# Entry
Amino acid sequence: MSVVSLTAPAKVNLYLHVTGRRNDGYHLLDSLFVFTKDGDVVHVRKSDRLALKLTGPYADSLRYENDNIVLKAVRLLASICGQDCNVEITLEKNLPVSSGIGGGSADAAATLKALLILWNQQMPIKRLQEIALSLGADVPSCLQSRPVQVSGIGDILKPAPNLPSFSLVLVNPNRPVSTPEVFKKRLPVFSDPAPFTEDMKNFDDFIQALQQRHNDLTQAACQLEPEVLRVLEVLQADPLCRLARMSGSGGTCFGVFPNVQEASLCCERLSRKYPDWWFFNTFVH
Ligand code: C5P
# Structure
């Protein structure tokens, strides 16, 4: 196989409760993660040295990074699998960076999966999850790329119950937000976990259930980057948007819609009005 190409979908936290804090400073979370149909794309192929090529609209945001999580993933998996690191990776960066939708984590997860295909190697999923966790708290869930209830620091995964179909519009003000800064800034209060345990067939019931939950990192992210609050207010004010919320540690926010037509209408309207923001009209995979 000459090139292996995999999509690294965006991760969206439909809600995110911070439920505690470990002694090592990491936070305990309760969250429903869903993954979008499209996202970044990772292409890997054998080469004579380890190389990373960046393409796509957000490539420049990563150009001057010391080390990319994708390269860390290659080195780590190569040493565990007894392979050399001589692969060329092309990372098509379509998602904004430092934006609360798991970009780097999704890229790392896609790289791990693509390398196993390239090297024609099998690995028990539990072992792969451990490797993923050592790269970042969100990487294990990104390996799954399907709706998942997440707890622990992001390492305890349970399949989410069935959800009704819905569409999303993701909006980012094109201002990076630092995850460690957001966790540092938040007030030290904790929420109860509220995992989804039963199938949700009806869209209105689903929205009602989401309204009973929240994202505990919103206030801190909006304080660090007030433009995130503007995005939330704009989405909330749209007559077609049934629920507006921030994902992860921000600043990407999302609107939930019952179908792709309504999501597209909102997306077209708002992207005309706010040409400096990033818009992504998508649905859950
Ligand atoms: O693991 P990851 O690199 O994604 O986390 C970035 C930072 O976010 C951590 O260094 C930590 O400060 C914070 N974090 C946390 N609790 C989590 C996940 C991340 O405190 N569950």
User: Anything to note?
Assistant: The chain is about 35% helix and 30% strand. Residues 103-118 form the longest helix (16 residues).
